Amino acid sequence: MSPVGPQEGDSVELEFTVTQDEMERYRDLSGDTNPMHWDRTFAKERGMEGPVVYGGLLVAQVSRLIGGHLPGPGAVIASMNLGFHSPLYVNQSATLTATVGRVSAATHSLEIGLVARRVENIIFRGSALVVTP
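Given the sequence above, the corresponding structure tokens read:
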């Protein structure tokens, strides 16, 4: 990144893994008791390899990347649009890549392209409009 702030084309990658403990804590916090996220038999009967990671925990990784890395502390997500393409399962590693697309000095905002992958599979793709201090 440029010392004057994020520039078009800047990119950051964040590797992450969602654990069973995080899944249980999210279920308790959110109240989302959909068995697709915790019941292995239920998920397998519906064509999955096992329980599917909560979308909210994937969105949390976007927040982690934007608030901690690109653009970093003080940044606020004004809007986000994500399309989910394939599931992520508990304890699988994934990589979230964020790339700055458009920067507006006038509005102190930037558009960030987002792609999360597990090996070659795209988990989700989208973008976020981020306001900076």
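The longest strand covers residues 93-104. Try to locate this feature in the token string yourself.
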